Amino acid sequence: MNILFVHQNFPGQFKHLAPALAEAGHQVIALGIGGSGLPAIPMVRYKPARRSSRDLHPLARDFEAKLIRGDACAAAAVRMKRGGFSPDVIVVNPGWGEGLFLKDVWPAAKILTLLEFFYAPHGRDADFDPEFRIDDIAQDARVRIKNASLLMALDSMDWGMSPTHFQHGVMPRAYQDRISVIFDGIDTGVVRPDATASITLAGRTLRAGDEILTFINRNLEPYRGYHQFMRALPRVLRERPDAVVLIVGGDEVSYGAAAPAGTTWKQTFFDEVKDRIDASRLHFLGRIPYADYLKVLQVSACHVYLSYPFVLGWSCIEAMSAGCLVVGSATAPVQEVIAHQENGLLVDFFDHDALAAAVIGALAQPAAHTHLRQAARDTTVVGYDLMTQCLPRQLALIDKLAAGELRT
After folding, report:
1. What global pTM score does this model have?
2. What is the CB neighbour count within 10 angstroms for residue 27?
3. Percent of the chain, pLDDT > 90?
4. 156 with 178: CB under 8 angstroms?
5. Could you tell me the domains of the chain?
């Protein structure tokens, strides 16, 4: 088969699937603006032909940006078609608009669309946190209009794929029967417990078994509960005088609104508690190489993962795969993978005192929670392992799609 992957920052979520298809003997090509690419996958890069308009209705700006990318992507696809390339299957992440017109370029191609989230003004992420909620019809309209390009993607796809049941469940009901639930996959052979793991910071070596609290996200922001985590720290550090805190994440914004001008969410919520903590026990590591990231998970005595009702981050599953004792938020995406007192601990997202109490208990009695660590590891091996679960299901889905076996 000829298979085309379309992702603005390739490989993105396709870093395992694309090489596996190439290794199986298929011709695989990627199309995108940026990203690191993959050694075995030829990549066609393109640039948007223009910038967004200055004088445009505010509600049209997001769609116009995606329209511009979709137009540029389609132009690149036309050039590929004229050069003789005709895909049997197109696998696309539609989040930036790239896939808007690919069905028009290659009408016979089967399109598999990765579906991560469908926005709503109420009942999901947009109005979840009262601290940042904006009760304004204009805000509701901005949230709703973010679905414009996604609705077009849903209409043009032949089949969809969502990583979790929660993400599948937020898609419009009219399309849910054409969406399979398959997680991206975690290499549990690499992401695994290591009792000998250590990491050295500022001349001090921290080891598995030490009293280490960890918090990891791509960026430190409210969507991932960074503010609630920071508010729990004064009590945690006061009651656990030997605890050390490792925080991994950048200063930018992945989701939601930016911090007030001139600051970052990281600094805003550190400033809120800095007078009540010993900052020498708190280490902001920023974004670190993957090998170091794994060591942080492996030395963790307690790992906190919080999230709005939104896309579940890879780091949650990776923490479980590394055998971490995860204290998570009792929100839908987290509850899908963590059951309280079965393979982790859950607390109310907004109750930072309850979060502190759970963390203190975990740090104080590590042996009492060993079974939760093992159960977390078992959960990932059984349900989320890349090689035995997720990748075989993804490959089978593409075979069925190409063969015309998927119909509603």
Report:
1. 0.95
2. 14
3. 93
4. no
5. 2-185+386-402 (3.40.50.2000), 198-383 (3.40.50.2000)
- Closest listed residue to residue 28, CA positions, set 335, 39, 201, 154: 39
**138 Cβ contact partners less than 8 Å away, ≥ 6 residues apart:** none
- Rounded to whole angstroms, the Cα distance separating 339 from 354 reads 17
**Pure H helices in 6-95:** 17-23, 61-82
Distance CA 372, CA 40 (A): 40
Contacts of residue 7, defined as CB under 8 A and 6 or more positions apart, other chains included, come to 13, 14, 30, 32, 35, 92, 93, 98
Digit-coded pLDDT (tens) for 14-55:
999 999 999 999 999 999 999 999 998 999 999 998 998 988
The strand ranges marked E within 167-301 are 179-181, 198-201, 204-207, 212-219, 244-250, 282-286
**Where residue 281 falls among pLDDT bands split at 50, 70, 90?**
very high
Contacts of 223 (CB under 8 A, 6+ apart): 125, 254, 255, 256, 307, 308, 310
Element of type H or E holding 6? strand 2-6
Measured CA distances, 90 to 20, 101, 215, 237, 394 (Å)? 15, 12, 36, 51, 13
How far apart, in whole angstroms, are the C-alpha atoms of residue 309 and residue 350? 13
227 in Cβ contact with 265 (< 8 Å): yes
Contacts of 328 (CB under 8 A, 6+ apart): 304, 305, 306, 307, 316, 334, 338, 344, 345, 346, 347
What pLDDT, in 10s, does the model give residues 187-224? Answer: 999 999 999 999 999 889 999 999 999 999 999 999 99
Across 115-134, b (16+ Cβ under 10 Å) vs e yields bbbbbbeeebbbbbbeeeee
- Strand (E) or helix (H) holding 160: strand 159-162
Backbone φ, ψ for residue 79 (5° rounding): -65, -40
Residue among 206, 215, 198, 207 at smallest CA distance from 303: 215
Q: How do strand 110-114 and strand 89-92 relate by DSSP bridges? A: parallel
Element housing 364 (H / E): helix 352-364
